[in-house]
């Protein structure tokens, strides 16, 4: 039987490969998650993140490689014997049990003393102890999600897996729960592994984000680091939005490179560029770009692109999004914060754009490769297996 953890444990995936008949889900994965951290595995459907979660949870066996939790090799350990719990998007609560009974269920099965007291403590942590005697169907979706979280953390798993846990919630509640999950993780001190395709969730909650693509980690680091300095086209476009320009390096100094893209010179600092010669893709985030109605004066510290023509204007409240079509370069995206009333320019207007040279970045690659793997299976199958296991335990009582 798995141990009752007082604090989080580190997770190590060493040389993991997972092949299914006809395709490879994970080519080669090495990953270490420090104990007590909030780690996000971020990527689109088909990147292998769900397969990784299933491997850690013990619902799949790796073709090659080892899985270690707290330094202990659990590769051959059965799912229910691992110090791991999972919070699913589908909640998987027992509808015939009260909230307190749902939370205490695992403790009672493991014959942990003071199961009810510990369950009440977990409910207080998620601010739902006052609803302990209600049934799941009497709660809102957000409240059910909190109960599912309380049921997972009351067992004090060394590692808590979060499988798209907020996907079923509305936008306002999802943002509230993002902050609450981060606060709870800091308070309980467990290791959280959050598997998601939602960039905002990953950047809001995680200490470290690993962007996964085609069965491998494309880039890993602090959220701000990944956003400010993406290394590849995939990361630049998946984690937020980017304006990308490709061309030959036409000039190099001790501090910067200059790329010639369709007759436009774009300067990027050497320290923010991954490659310094040949054909290079450089970029800038849309919110770093300034829109001008008239051609701006020459400034050695800024890149200037234009003239172009505005082909779309979209008001989103906080900002206005402009798409500027520039001959040779294509569409350039600009996010302008709404400081006044209404847009500063309209569809059909001529415009120039500029940005601080220090805000640009240079990528390792020139273009993304086609997707190699088919999409992940729906993670609802994981929740179904988890629920079936709990029902089996219940029937044995």
Would you summarize the structure shown here?
The protein is α+β, with helices and mostly antiparallel strands and 397 residues long. The protein has nine helices and 20 strands.
The residue-averaged pLDDT reads 86
Kindly report how far apart the N and C termini lie: 17 Å
CATH class value of the largest domain: Alpha Beta
Order of helices and strands: EEEHEEEHHHEHEHEEHHEEEEEEEEEEH
Number of domains: 2
Q: How would you write the strand order of the largest sheet?
A: 6-7-8-3-9-10
Structural class call reads alpha+beta
Q: Detail the poorly predicted runs.
A: 367-382
Specify the helix fraction band.
10-25%
How many distinct helices?
A: 9
Radius of gyration: 25 Å
> If classified by CATH, what would the architecture of the largest domain be?
3-Layer(aba) Sandwich
CATH superfamily of the largest domain: P-loop containing nucleotide triphosphate hydrolases
Query: What is the molecular shape?
Result: globular
